[in-house]
Amino acid sequence: DTAVSQTPKYLVTQMGNDKSIKCEQNLGHDTMYWYKQDSKKFLKIMFSYNNKELIINETVPNRFSPKSPDKAHLNLHINSLELGDSAVYFCASSGDRGPYEQYFGPGTRLTVT
Amino acid sequence: GQNIDQPTEMTATEGAIVQINCTYQTSGFNGLFWYQQHAGEAPTFLSYNVLDGLEEKGRFSSFLSRSKGYSYLLLKELQMKDSASYLCAVRVEYGNKLVFGAGTILRVKS
Predict the structure, then answer these.
(1) Burial class (CB in 10 A: 0-12, 13-18, 19+), A15
(2) Mind listing the pLDDT tens digit for each residue in A44-85?
(3) Least confident range of A1-5, A16-20, A61-65, B87-91
(4) Which run of H or E residues covers position A92?
(5) Residue of A55, A101, A104 with shortest CB distance to B95
(6) What is the SS3 assignment for B84?
(7) Can you tell me the distance from the alpha carbon of A71 to that of B92, in angstroms, rounded to the nearest whole number?
(8) Are B96 and A104 within 8 A, CB to CB?
(9) Which residue from A minimizes the CA distance to B2?
(10) What pLDDT band is residue B1 in, cutting at 50, 70 and 90?
């Protein structure tokens, strides 16, 4: 019954490593998003895909690369992890009818040591 | 630029009414959302305003004045479970891009 799911829930890794976070939604939504929530709890959009097409690409280091194999999945790959990448990463999705509210996954807490 | 301001923290008593304000200055406006986020959990959708006025949803109401760049979330009959962070977010022009405020931490005391 999970609407938006993410794996893993926790990720602890060392600087310089490469890691991926996976997201899946079973709501039949067309649009998916990645957000970063930093230690000050500020939630900021990173990317958005609509039907596998990238539509929002904020000013994010190119070490971050999203991939959408189909409209139900949106993965985030991060190369050469840095200390400043430590945050909670949320995936979200929204449908094609107003008000287009976004449904968030449970988050992935990434800690880079 | 995008600027969304909310109070950092508020405290209220169980059973009372609390109003959380949000002011915004954004490059575009296509609606304002309120989300609730409990500690360690995902944000969940509470309300949406795109026209001026009040939207009521049970114990929660949200108000919008586009000319003033102002919104508030009103929580009535406060319960302990309402202790959470409340995020104001503006949908700006393209895509379904939401710009979030930093959130208001509400503490409900007995």
Answers:
(1) exposed
(2) 999 999 988 999 889 889 999 999 999 999 999 999 999 999
(3) A1-5
(4) strand A87-94
(5) A55
(6) strand
(7) 23
(8) no
(9) A44
(10) confident
The token duo for B102 is 């930093």
Residues A37 and B42: their CA atoms lie apart, in Å, by 10
Tell if the CB–CB gap between A40 and B102 is shorter than 8 Å. Answer: yes
Q: Nearest CA to A34 among A111, A109, A112, A105?
A: A105
Give buried/exposed letters for B79-90 (b at 16+ CB in 10 A, else e): eeebbbbbbbbb
In which band, very low, low, confident or very high, does the pLDDT at A98 lie, cut at 50, 70 and 90? Answer: confident
Question: Which among B37, B85, B96 has CB closest to A31?
Answer: B96
The CA distance from A21 to A36, in Å, is 12
All residues of chain B having their beta carbon less than 8 Å from the beta carbon of residue A55 are: 94-95
pLDDT score of A1: 66
| Chain A residue closest in CA terms to B99 | A44
